[in-house]
Amino acid sequence: MPEPSLIEVREVRKSYRGPGGAVVTAGDGVTFDVARGEVLGLLGHNGAGKTTTIKMTCGLVHPDSGSVRVAGHDTRTDRRGAVRHVSAVLEGNRNLYWRLSVLENLVYFAGNRGRSPADVWRRADALLERFGLAEKRHEVVAKLSRGMQQKLAIAVALLADTDVVVLDEPTLGLDVETSHEVRALLRGVADEGRTVVLSTHDMPVVEELCRRVVVVAGGRVVTDALVSDLLNLFRSRAFRVTLESPLPTADMARLGSRYQVAPTDDTTFDVELAEAGELYSLMDDLRDAGAEVSGIERTTPRFEEVFRRLVQEGGKPPQDQPAALRKEAVVAL
Amino acid sequence: MLSEGYHNAFRANLVKAVIELRRYLPNTISMVVTFYVIFLFLLFGVRFVAAPGGSEDAVRYLIVSNGFWFLLMMTVNSMGWELTTEALRGTLEQLYLGTVPAWLILLFRMVATLVINVVILALVTLLSMVTAGTWLQVDVASLAALLPPTLLAAIGLSYAVAGLTIVFKQVNAFLQLSQFVLMAIAYVPLAQVPLLELAPTAKGIDMVRQVTAEGVALSSFTTADWVSLWVSGAAYFALGLLAFKLLERRAMRLGLLGHY
User: What is the pLDDT of residue A313?
Assistant: First the structure.
């Protein structure tokens, strides 16, 4: 018998009264599951409803209707039971007490989960070592760099030893190097077998860490699919074309008006087609322009591009894909 | 209860309060100085303006009332300030992600704050007595019997303020206004306004005043006095906590539990 999902979000509806009294829909029948040990990316533009969904998973916001269950506990009717299984980094480096030291923060937050200081001290060494914070254990948080603060916030969440770790924008505002370090740490968390729900606009993080993504737009799930399937889905429409000689600017502009073309150098360009069949008409157009094609290959699009297209197209998959794959990509429209 | 590790949560909050008191030392010192200066102005008013050459009873009355006003303000506003600060820092949601309920964490913090404030109050009262050259009858046993039910009502009010803070956020104006209401409760004697006995903490303050300023023995109070003291304390505590829980639930329904 398959193990039940660790997180079950069922037909969740949530709306707020916005500025001026307008009703803002943050959830309109949101439904998805997260299996134990899965790393799920919850994606969407600002205002799509992903933060509300995350807060409902943490029991911080109650749905108007529908239910969110964590390890079988309803976050509305059995909030404490659910919260026992969840830790979260919701405000990044702001999740900490800046006048307390690194170690004092760990002890305090663990204390609010009933942990003794001795228990924290026993585990803190290894945790701080792993997060590169061992040297800073007695430093007050206000004096740490933003990246270190962010790492500490994640360490605090991990110390809670919960089944589920929820991370809202864990790499927001970090420089490239620190973002890379945080990503490596999160990779370690995922490898531990923890269930991770990750909300981010940082698509390389999604591509590297998440097995599956749920894309939310306008309070609805528009896509619920494996990252690898989505990349394959869009891969069939993306090509790199190499020409024998550079194409005149006017001809390249003409191509650009018909296709999504991105030149990479004088003789090479990437093209994203609406459907794979368009490749023939592209070849015709190149021949008409007198261009000689020396090579053409499928390319794997960056997940960022896949996400952008998914949201643009309202979650609709390319029409030239097998029905089974399309079904997997689109759960709700 | 203890199996839930609540004692660890209590210790964590007590330690945090002490650490923050130390790290925000200038704030603490300015708070003590402010109350001492207020006392000096009031003493000046009693000695030289309102009742020149007035009795020592009036000065003792002033010292006790001023002390209680300080304690009431600190207690009643405490949870509201805590939540406002947590929300501004971005740590409020983390409080709600602990396995120990938020209302209990606030109570632990309140106890820690009370311990610290009572120490500060003792210091200010000592300074006040030295300045005024008038001495109160400080009977620790009597205070230990009278303070808990008195402060229970104040904690209830604090919960209600905390609930309002979560939902309405901007309660600073309300808190400033409440200072004057609390001043009335702390200063006006029940003998002059008997109906004030229904107000939270008023009965307890009046009894403490009788013991410390007038030298009344604890055994002189009637059963009715004690019943009134405890019933009032318990009722205001329960009502305040109920208001907090209802407003907290409303905040979760409206999605208001977060940063401001």
Answer: 64
Chain B, nearest residue to A13 by Cα: B253
SS3 A26: strand
CA-nearest of A299, A297, A274, A301 to A207 is A301
Best of A112, A113, A115, A158 to disrupt the B interface (most B CBs within 10 Å) is A112
Of A278, A193, A292, A190, which is closest to residue A241 (Cα–Cα)?
A292
Nearest neighbour of A88 by CB, restricted to B19, B23, B97: B97
A298 with A239: CB under 8 angstroms? Answer: yes
Q: For A314, which DSSP code?
A: T
Name beta bridge partners: A220: A217
Tell me the residues of A at the B interface, defined by beta carbons under 8 Å apart. 14, 16-17, 26, 52, 55, 58-62, 80, 83-84, 86-88, 90-91, 94-100, 104, 107-117, 140
CB contact under 8 A, A62 and B12: no
Question: Do residues A332 and A222 make contact, with C-beta atoms less than 8 angstroms apart?
Answer: yes
Partner A contacted by B246 (CB < 8 A) = no
Residues of chain B neighbouring A114 (CB-CB closer than 8 A): 4-6, 8-9, 99-100
**Do the Cβ atoms of A239 and A271 come closer than 8 Å?**
yes
Does residue A87 carry a pLDDT above 90? yes
Nearest to B23 among A99, A110, A113 (CB): A99
Count Cα neighbours of A118 within 13 Å in the Cβ-side half-sphere: 1
Top residue of B19, B97, B104, B259 to mutate, by most chain A CBs within 10 Å, is B97
- Asked if the model's pLDDT at residue B259 lies above 80, the reply is no
ipTM of the complex: 0.85
Number of separate helices (H) and strands (E) present in chain A: 12, 14
Instruction: Tell me the pLDDT tens digit for each residue of B229-244.
Output: 999 999 999 999 999 9
Give chain A's mean pLDDT.
85
Phi, psi of A90 (to 5 degrees): -105, -25
In this structure, how many other beta carbons lie within 10 angstroms of the beta carbon of residue B178? 18
CA A89 to chain centre: 14
Q: Are B97 and B214 in contact (CB under 8 A)?
A: no
Sequence-ordered list of residues with C-beta below 8 angstroms from that of A272, at least 6 positions apart, any chain:
A237, A238, A259, A260, A262, A301, A305, A309
Chain B positions touching A158 (Cβ under 8 A) are none
pTM for this one? 0.81
| Residue B4 in contact with partner chain A when CB distance is under 8 A | yes
* Contact list, B95 vs chain A (CB under 8 Å): 112
Candidates B110, B165, B152; CA nearest to B238 is B152
